[in-house]
Amino acid sequence: MGSTSNGMSPILQVKNLNVRFDTLKVLNDLSFDVEKGNIVAIIGPNGAGKTVLFRTLLGLIPYEGKIEWQPGVKIGYVPQKLSVGKDLPITVRDFLGFKNAPKGELLEALEVLGQSGHHSEHHLSHHLLDRKMGDLSGGELQRILIAYAVVGHPDVLLFDEPTAGVDIGGEETIYSILEKLRKKSNLSILLISHDLNVVYRYANQVLCINKEKICYGSPKDVLNSSALEQLYGTEVGVYHHGH
Amino acid sequence: MAINLDYNLILSLIVGIFVGAASGYLGSVMVLRRMSLVGDALSHVALPGIGIALTYKINPFLGAFVALALGVIAIWSIQRKTTLPTEAVVGLMFTFSLAIGVLVTPEPELLEALFGDISKVQSVDGIFAVALSAAVLMIMSLIRDKLVLGLISPDLAKSQGVKTDKIDLLFLGLVAIIVALGVKVVGTLLMGSLVIIPAAAAKNIASNLRTYGLLSVLFGILSVLIGVFLSNWLNWPPGPSIVLASSAIFLISLESRIQTRIS
Q: How far is residue B173 from each of residues B68, B69, B145, B166, measured CA to CA in Å?
């Protein structure tokens, strides 16, 4: 099926995946492979089934067809958002504690996210760990979610990009962090993206879906105007030149 | 103000401390999950159970617990099958069971069932209540994190192997146990407040989960202690005295919230 560039066995094989909610087909006969160390962007219009695909891959929804992860693979999941109201007494430290990991691993995961080496524990406490989850900015929350996901060194990261709430500057760093993580530990990343620029810049594979597979391959090869039109219809102009 | 520290008072204080602590801790999660109304409704569901148990001369705790277990299963299935707010259904259940309960509870016991009377707790019942409360506290400390993670992101919790459905049911089961116990202390009408008010007060002050849990427990205990002493001293019924005490704690905590808002 998928392109095997380096001859290794894929970390994920999906064959003839079907998901339906009652009678409504949400994913139709989806097949693709993911090679180890790749960044695969999943794109498609609203309601195309991108998040459903993630939830299915995580084993949260019943499906028909085959989802085969490489044996023993560890998956980290970065959800699009959390429901934490501003007044919830849950700090970043509390949240990271839900992972039940040794403190060293938590600090290590946080370190990956800091751009420079200024993250002494004291500094972390003051500026991050003791803050309430509900008070974090979109970008900060995302970093914490990534840190949470990479605790314990997963082999695969499923990253559901938020549609809004992250400033441009923030977004840049998120993707450079992901890129860094991939290089450092040969992490495979599946990311749901709403931004074609991100796809072009960071993904080596792109999977376009609209309930079914529209295209799959390297962004330069497969993201031609006909695929995009099939995917987004008339919205494509707005989308491509978006700010 | 001669406080008579007799055996009964000591027993009710010990029972009160344990039930208050467990109520506060459970309540801390209920408040996070916006289940305040559920707590209130559940406590009313206990009434028909107590009424039927009294009529057939069964232990009223058992009657309350069975009625609560049924109520809990009803709420759980509603939560599972729909993502709709459970409020309307819960609101209905609440008044419906109160009406049935008042009809079936024998007149002489009605007042005690509605408002409780911790001073009438017997030794055996007391030991039972202390043991159950301790068990609830222990189980809660094991599942609290999972419950909170399930609250802020069910998908994240499930992807981490947390069986959210089962944990939710277990949690509601614990709520049923504590409400059934608390009915003896403050009665069906006021039990909701023993679960909710200490946690609501703690939430006004706490800045992290650990402090929040601890303060909820502390305020639960304080409410019962102050309430029981107040009732002993002024000859008030204990149930309403306890709720007055917890309300006072809430008012004081509100002050701290207002101050943090301003600063």
A: 9, 7, 17, 10
B31 shares contact with chain A (CB less than 8 Å)? no
pTM: 0.86
Check CB contact under 8 Å for B153 and A83.
Answer: yes
End-to-end distance of chain A based on CA atoms, in angstroms?
Answer: 36
CA-nearest residue to B261 within chain A is: A87
**Contact with chain A for residue B190, Cβ under 8 A:** no
This model of the complex carries an ipTM of: 0.85
Instruction: State the virtual CA torsion across B161, B164, B170, B172 in degrees, nearest 10.
Output: 160
pLDDT digits (tens, 9 = 90+) for A164-216: 656 656 666 788 888 888 888 889 999 998 888 888 888 999 999 999 998 99
Nearest chain A Cα distance for residue B153, angstroms? 5
Asked if B155 lies within 8 A of A97 by C-beta distance, the reply is no
CB A14 within 8 A of CB A33: yes
Give me the helices (H) in chain B, please: 7-32, 36-55, 60-81, 87-104, 107-115, 123-152, 154-159, 164-186, 191-205, 209-234, 238-262
**Interchain pair B155, A79: CB under 8 A:** yes
**Which CATH architecture group holds B7-192?**
Orthogonal Bundle (1.10)
Question: CB–CB of A97 and B145 under 8 A?
Answer: yes
- Mark out the alpha helices in A160-232 (DSSP H runs): 168-185, 196-202, 219-222, 225-232
Q: Domain locations in chain B?
A: 7-192
State whether B209 and A89 contact (CB < 8 Å). Answer: yes
- Give the contacts of B238 (CB within 8 A, at least 6 positions apart): B12, B116, B117, B118, B119, B185, B186, B227, B228, B231
Residues of B in contact with A99 (CB under 8 A): 160
Neighbouring C-alpha atoms within 13 Å toward the C-beta of A91: 17
